[in-house]
Amino acid sequence: MTSLAPDFPEDLYRRLFLDTPNAALVCDADGRILAVNQAFEALFGAAAAAVAGTRLGDLLRPVGEIVRDGACLPADEADLTGEALWAVDDGEPVAVQVLSFPVGTAAGRPLGCCIYRDISTRRLAEDQLQATEHKYHSFFENAVEGIFRTTPGGRYLDVNRTLARIYGFATVAEMVAHFRDIKSQLYVDPGRRDDFVRELAARDEVHNFESAIRKKDGSVIWISENARVVRNAQGAPVWYEGTVVDITDRKRAEQELEIQRAYFSQLFANSPQAITLIDNQRTIVDVNKGFEALFGYQLAELRGCGMREFLVPDDLRTECENLRMAILAGRSVQRETLRRHRDGRNIPVSMIGFPVHIQGDMAGIIYIYQDISERKAFEAQITHQAFHDALTGLPNRSLLADRLDRALSRSRRRGDAQSAVLMIDLDKFKGVNDTLGHQAGDQLLVEVAKRLVACVRSMDTVARLGGDEFAVILEECKSKREVLAVVERIGVSLGRPFSLNGATVTPEASIGVVCVPGPTPRPRRSSGTRISPCTGPRSRGGPSCCSITRCIRRSSKPSPWSRNCARPWPDGSCCCTTSPSSRSTPGRSKALKPWCAGTTPTGASSRRPGSSPWPRRRA
């Protein structure tokens, strides 16, 4: 027995029993409680006087199992030392750790001491920790993302079932055992592991680290990793932990989208057609090289500006706005129109416009322009050839008929407007072809056409009907005197000699005039306006240059021209013959001498004997 110091208090053990913070009691060999301390009363809620003499087994009983050295024992075992829930009668169980030991004898009987240490706080913390661990384990195992811990050297310490499934393994153990070197076995490009470690060393974490990896069966998939470094107290990395997501489907979609973008980008950039993208505020977003080549503008000077300011002619602003509104309504439009070049000229283009929708919302408009200048020029050429004489360039019979219809329509609308039609037939033209050749005849026809055009106004029409036949439409004539002045001017012009292949030729013609002083029936219903050659005098063997003027009259008053009429027409108009190509003095221009140039009222020729109507060659 250990000796005590002389000054050791005799009541030390008593005070130790009573003042210890742990609940304590003393019982005899029969288990009867001899004494309890204040901590016991506070812990179990039982007063010392009430429990004295009570058997310990009747007062306290364990609830559930007793934990001793980590093992759970039945509560009915004799030795009740260990951790358990103890309760007094029907009181609340208290988690305590029980320690019992002998303390000596009294009256020859052994005594024992039981100490009850309250472990409720520790049990609560342990329960919370266990619940937390259970939650973590459930999250770890059931997460939809792969979770891992790896060593800095490249081996897996732990993975969840999702990551094993992503990599093609049946179990976690199989996957952990399979990978001995992540760098060479997992990544398609081993350098990606080095990049992964390098980024972790620099920032202690990585986000959205995308790599191609090989599964167990060798197939390649894409993953995205998020990870961080776990360091020890010295700051050295202990392991890497993070998550893995399979992004193979997204990568395939991105690749397909990239291919579509490449197709569109190349189509947009390399298309020979001019393409421009306009946003909802009419602002130019982008143009291709074809646009720059067609209109002469560069993207840098167009981007952010309105298209109408640069391309749309002023007189087509309304059309442009109408087309834009139709496109914004969801329709595609196609139109042939004009757009302005940088140098100010208008370019005929074929335009296609259609809306651009992004996620169901209108995002802008795409316009595609194709230069149709050549086609338009060719169409104009075809149209010109269809309605003009190929040799002289004058309107042909078809265009003449159309313009005659329009002239007569204007005459009907305007009662004061007067029109006239001159039918011109070259005399003895066949002799030119026979003596000088057809090429010379063509040159003569071209010269006659030029002289006829020079004799009339720009609003009048000079046409070639075919062969040596011409026609002239005179519009808005104030009087018949003005018509006769034009006839005389034509005669004088045609009477000028013309040098042709070394020979001097003086063109001569017969001219028929139809005057329309007011509203008349359509030309197809009027016998006096029928387009036909003036062949009457030539059929009678008349002169090589003469004129027949026919005036359509509605009144029965005699015309001032009728005094020179050779014969009346059945409908009351008159037929007068003059010679506008004769050499008349100015005084005779107002009243042309009838049957001049060698004709008589009976049609007999007064040409000198021996004279010839054929052109003479120069010596």
Features:
619 residues, Beta-Lactamase, 4 domains, 7-stranded antiparallel sheet, 27 strands, 33% helix
Describe the structure in your own words:
With 619 residues, this protein is an alpha+beta fold. It folds into 4 domains: 12-125, Beta-Lactamase, CATH 3.30.450; 143-251, PAS domain (Beta-Lactamase, 2-Layer Sandwich); 272-375, PAS domain (Beta-Lactamase), CATH 3.30.450.20; 388-617, Alpha-Beta Plaits, CATH 3.30.70.270. Helices cover 33% and strands 30% of the residues. The strands form 5 sheets. The protein has a 7-stranded antiparallel β-sheet. A 7-stranded mixed β-sheet has the order 19-20-18-23-24-26-25, sandwiched between helices. It has a 5-stranded antiparallel β-sheet with strand order 9-8-12-11-10, with helices on both faces. β3 and β4 (71-73) form a beta hairpin. It is rod-shaped, with a radius of gyration of 61 Å.
